[in-house]
Specification:
With 155 residues, the protein is mainly α. Helices cover 65% and strands 6% of the residues. The protein has 9 helices and 2 strands; from the N terminus they run αααααβααβαα. The protein has a two-stranded antiparallel ribbon. α1 crosses α3, α1 packs across α5 and α8 crosses α9. The longest helix has 18 residues. It is elongated, with a radius of gyration of 18 Å.
Length: 155
């Protein structure tokens, strides 16, 4: 199994940001709960997934937010590697840049969805009824749409 390090780091950052926000904390407030000194810029780059953090730093962040590091990593792992049963994970950014003419309706939907939720919410999981409707809009069989979507998600 190949690991897309950039994708993994981005999802880890997203999960760190979710944890902080669940506590209602700003980055500055999180920083005050940390054992060591970290700049607010560094915290921001961890959350954006543009900077890797050491294992010790990750544990420190988790402890400060009362989260077990293994639970946080399990959330990241699920998002990176596992589709929920009966669902297909779709990266809206990849759908938008895809040029398959049959997926034009799906592309327009993905653009609207990204515009609503922002880039942080670029991954969605589509269930079978949603896939059936999307396939109908695209004029292709559902099984064909699923294969195409999974190809878009392949590293």
């Amino acid at each position: 199994m190949l690991i897309d390090a950039e994708d993994y780091q981005r999802i880890l950052g997203d999960e760190l940001r979710k944890l902080r926000r669940q506590r209602g904390w700003t980055r500055k407030e999180l920083n005050q709960h940390l054992q060591s000194e970290i700049s607010l810029q560094t915290l921001a780059t961890y959350e954006l997934g543009t900077r890797q953090c050491s294992v010790v730093r990750l544990v420190e962040l988790c402890v400060a937010m009362d989260e077990l590091p293994q639970d946080l990593l399990a959330k990241v792992h699920r998002r990176v590697f596992i589709d929920e049963p009966g669902r297909v994970r779709v990266d809206l950014r990849k759908v938008i840049v895809d040029d398959q003419p049959e997926l034009g309706s799906l592309r327009r939907w993905a653009e609207g969805r990204l515009h609503q939720g922002g880039d942080a919410n670029h991954e969605v999981q589509l269930d079978l009824p949603a896939l059936d409707r999307m396939a109908e809009l695209c004029g292709i069989p559902t099984a064909d749409l699923i294969v195409r979507l999974r190809r878009l998600g392949a590293p």
